Amino acid sequence: MRGKCLLATLVLPLALAAGCTETESVAGQSARRTPTPTPTPAGITDADYARHVEELKKRLPSREFEVVVEKPFVVVGDGGRAAVEEHARGTVRWAVTLLRKDFFAKDPKEILDVWLFKDSTSYYTHATDLFGGRPTTPYGYYSPAHRSLVMNIETGGGTLVHEIVHPFVEANFPDCPPWLNEGLGSLYEQSGEQDGHIVGYTNWRLPGLQRAIRRGGLMPFQKLLALDGAAFYGDEQGTHYAQSRYLCYYLQERGLLTRFYREFYNNRATDPTGFDTLKKTLNEPDMPAFQKRWETFVLSLAQERLTPITP
Ligand SMILES: [Zn+2]
Predict the structure, then answer these.
(1) Cβ(148)–Cβ(163) under 8 Å?
(2) Residues 24-76: pLDDT tens digits?
(3) 308 vs 13 pLDDT, higher one
(4) Dist. CA 74 → ligand 1 center (Å)
(5) What 8-state DSSP symbol labels residue 308?
(6) Strand 191-194 versus strand 197-200 pairing type
(7) Which of 150, 215, 234, 262 counts the highest number of beta carbons within 10 A?
C-alpha cells in the first residue's frame, strides 16, 4: 500500500490506435489505497456471485488461476493469489470507488470478469482460447460480448483503470460518443488521487499529440466530437484518443470535467456529441479560438507530471 498520491510508474512510448470495446492500450500507474469494499450492485445478490464464481472455476484454463470477488467485478488471474488479490483490493477497488464518486451512479448490470494474465504469453494464449480470437493489442481490452475485461497485467495497471471506465460508461451513459468514452478511459490510464478524487496525469500520448499540433494535423473539436465509432477507431495513429484525452485533461485542470460530464449527460438528447455543452462549459462562443488556446496549453505540458508520494 502506498500513501495518498500515486506515482505513474510506467510509460510506453507507443502510439497505437486502440479500440475501446475490443482493443485497448496503454500502461501507466496504479493506485494503491484500500477503500472499504464496495457494495453489491443493485439486483445482483451474493448468491449470484457465488454461482458466477462456480461457473467461472469450471472454465479456468489451468490450476494456476485464482478468483477474487471484488464487486462489481470478479477478478481472475494466473500471477499467484497474492498478486491477484493485490490488483483486486488495490487498483480495481480504488478505481471503482473514485470513478463512482465523481461520475458513475450505476454499476454494470451484469457481473463482469477481469482477466489478469501474468505475461504476454499467457495473455495471447489464453485470451485467444477463451475469447475466440487473438488480441489486437498487447495491453488489454474490454469485450462486452464476453462480459470480460482482458488484460496483460505485466504491462501495468494503467490499462486496467482505462478498461474499468468502459463498462461504467456503458451502464451510465449508453450513447456516450467514442471521444468521451475513450477520453475518460485514457485520461485515467495514468492517474492518481488528490483530495479524494481521481486525477489523470500527462502520459505517453502527449508527445505524439504535440507533434500533430505542430504539424497542424488536428481536426476541429466539433468534428472530433461528432465522430462515430468506425471513424474514431479507424485512426491508427491514436490521434483521436490523444486529442480526446487532453481535452478531458484540460477540463480536469480547469476544474470543469465532472460538471461537463453531468451537463452533457443531461443535454444528450439535444446535444448528442457534447459540442454545445462543451462551448457552454467553457463559456466560449469562438471554438476555433479555444482550440488555439488549448493547443498552446498542450504544447506547454511535459510528459511526466510526477506527483510526490505521501507516505
Ligand atoms: Zn478504451
Answers:
(1) no
(2) 333 333 444 556 666 667 789 999 999 999 999 999 999 999 999 999 999 99
(3) 308
(4) 20
(5) P
(6) antiparallel
(7) 150
User: In Å, what is the CA distance from 212 to each residue of 26, 133, 205, 206, 246?
Assistant: 19, 33, 11, 10, 13
Closest CA to 171 of 147, 190, 188, 151: 147
Q: Which set of grid coordinates corresponds to residue 79?
A: 500471477
Cα-to-centroid distance, 54 and ligand 1 (Å): 29
CA of 194 to the centre of ligand 1 (A): 23
Q: What's the pTM? A: 0.86
Distance 285 CA to ligand 1 centre (A): 30
Sheet containing 73-77: order of strands: 66-70, 73-77, 112-117, 148-152, 140-143
Q: How far is the centre of ligand 1, averaged over its atoms, from the C-alpha of 20 (Å)?
A: 4
Please state, in angstroms and as integers, the Cα–Cα distance from residue 3 to each residue in 32, 83, 189, 246, following that order. Answer: 7, 19, 19, 27
Spatial CA neighbour of 137 closest among 151, 116, 126 = 151
Ligand 1 center–CA 233 separation, angstroms: 10
The rounded Cα 87 to chain-centroid distance in angstroms is 15
Alpha carbon of 266 to ligand 1 centroid (Å): 23
* The pLDDT of residue 220 is above 50: yes
Domain-by-domain residue ranges, the chain?
A: 198-299
Question: How remote is the CA of residue 157 from the centroid of ligand 1, in Å?
Answer: 14
Q: What is the mean pLDDT of the chain?
A: 87
Q: How many angstroms is it from 311 CA to the middle of ligand 1?
A: 32
